[in-house]
Design brief:
It contains 2 helices and no strands. It has one domain. It is elongated. α1 runs antiparallel to α2. With about 80 residues, it is an all-alpha fold. About 70% of the residues lie in helices and about 0% in strands.
């Protein structure tokens, strides 16, 4: 009997991406505070807001790529 080769598919890739988003979100406030501490007269709010906007832009692009991409599902 021939054993089917297991590869990483779209579902696993999406899961890994969502986990990565969660990890980034956990460390974002601390990173913003660290950057604000190193810059004179700076607050973490502005740094965190800018980072969230950039992060949201890339997340929206990734979501559109997944929605518009053509994937073969053999499950």
């Amino acid at each position: 009997m021939e054993k089917k080769q297991i590869t990483v598919g779209v579902k696993e890739g999406l899961g890994a991406g969502i986990i990565a988003i969660g990890i980034i979100l956990v460390f974002m406030p601390g990173a913003a505070q660290g950057i604000a501490d190193s810059i004179k007269n700076s607050t973490p709010y502005g740094i965190l807001t800018g980072a969230v906007y950039v992060f949201a832009f890339f997340t929206i692009l990734a979501g559109l790529a997944v929605m518009l991409g053509k994937f073969d599902s053999e499950e």
